[in-house]
Amino acid sequence: MSLKVALVTGASSGIGKATAKLLAKNGYYVFAVARRMEKLKPMSCDQIEPIHLDVVDAEGIRSVVEHIIATKGRIDVLVNNAAYGQLGAIECVSMEAAHQQFEVNVFGYARFIQAVLPHMRYQKSGRIINITSILGRAPIPGFGWYAASKHAVEALSETLRSELMGSGIDVAVIAPGLIKTEFVPKQLALLETIPHPPVYQKLLAGIRILLVDEPRSPGPEMIAHAILEASTARHPPIRHALPISSKMAIMARWLMGPRLFSWAIRYLMKI
Ligand code: NDP
C-alpha cells in the first residue's frame, strides 16, 4: 500500500505542530508548512518535510502542491490550520488589519483548497480538514474580526462539502475552544498595537477576563487527535467542536439566541 500524504499548514507551533507529528507517527508522509523555518527544521525526519511558505503567497502555494505531486504522486489530507487572532473592537481595528485577517484566515485556506482539489478529484479521494474555532459559531465582543473570519471558513466548508458530495472527497471542520499554544499570547500582543479610546477600556479588560484561563486550558495534542480521527475515519465528522466546554458554548448560543447569549457574555466579561 502506498504511503498516505498530508499537507499541514501552520505546522511551526501549537495545533499544527502536534498534528504534523501525530500524522507522521501514524504512517503519513507530512509536508509541514509555515514561515518560521527555525521552528520547522527540528521536525525534519523521514516522515516530515518542512516547507517555508506564507499562506498569502498564491504562487508559492501552487509550487508546493506541484512539488508534493511531483515527489509523492498524491495528496490525501489537507489540514488548513495556519491562522492568527485579530482582537480589538470592530470600530478600532484598521481596515488594513481586518483585510489581513481575512487574507490569512480565509483566503489562505481557500488558496490551499483550490490548489489541492484538482489532484484530489483526479485521485477520486481526499480529506480537507479546516480548523475553525468556537467563535466560528458564537461571536463575542472584542473578537469580531477573528470571529468573522472563522464564520466565513465555516460557511465555505459547509458549502464545499455539499459541492464535493459523491466525488470521494470529504470536508470536515474541527472547532477548538481555548487551547494552550502560542495563539493567545500572540493575540494579546497584537491587541496592544490597536489604539482604543477610553470608552472601550472595559471591553479590553473583558477580553483579558475571557482569556485568563488559557494557561490552564488543554494542550494542542487533544485537537491533533481529533484531526487524525477526521483524516482516517470512514465517515469523518462534519463539524467537531472540542473540548466539551466548546461544544456547550455553541449549544448555549443556539439555545439562548443572540440577545440572551450576548447578555450572558457581557455579564461574564463585566462590560
Ligand atoms: P499558533 O499561534 O500556535 O500557531 C499558528 C500557526 O499558524 C503557526 O505555525 C504560524 O507559523 C502559522 N501562521 C500564522 N500566520 C501564517 C501565515 N501568514 N503563513 C503561514 N503560516 C502562518 O496557534 P494555534 O496552534 O493555537 O492555532 C491553530 C489554529 O487553531 C488556528 O486556525 C486558530 O485559529 C485555531 N484556534 C486556536 C485556538 C487556541 O486557543 N489556541 C482556539 C480556537 C481556534 P509561522 O508564524 O511560523 O508562520
Write structural notes for this entry.
Helix 4 (95-123) runs parallel beside helix 5. This protein starts with a strand and ends with a helix. By secondary structure, it is of the alpha/beta class. The protein has helices at residues 14-25, 37-40, 58-72, 95-123, 144-163, 183-191, 201-211, 221-232, 244-269; strands at 4-9, 28-34, 48-52, 77-80, 126-131, 169-176, 239-242. The protein has one domain (4-269): NAD(P)-binding Rossmann-like Domain (Rossmann fold, 3-Layer(aba) Sandwich), CATH 3.40.50. It is 51% helix and 15% strand. Strands 3-2-1-4-5-6-7 form a 7-stranded parallel beta sheet, with helices on both faces. NADPH dihydro-nicotinamide-adenine-dinucleotide phosphate is lined by residues 10-16, 34-36, 39, 54-56, 81-84, 104, 131, 133, 176, 178-179, 181-184, 186, 220.
Summed up:
With 271 residues, the protein is of the alpha/beta class. The protein has helices at residues 14-25, 37-40, 58-72, 95-123, 144-163, 183-191, 201-211, 221-232, 244-269; strands spanning 4-9, 28-34, 48-52, 77-80, 126-131, 169-176, 239-242.
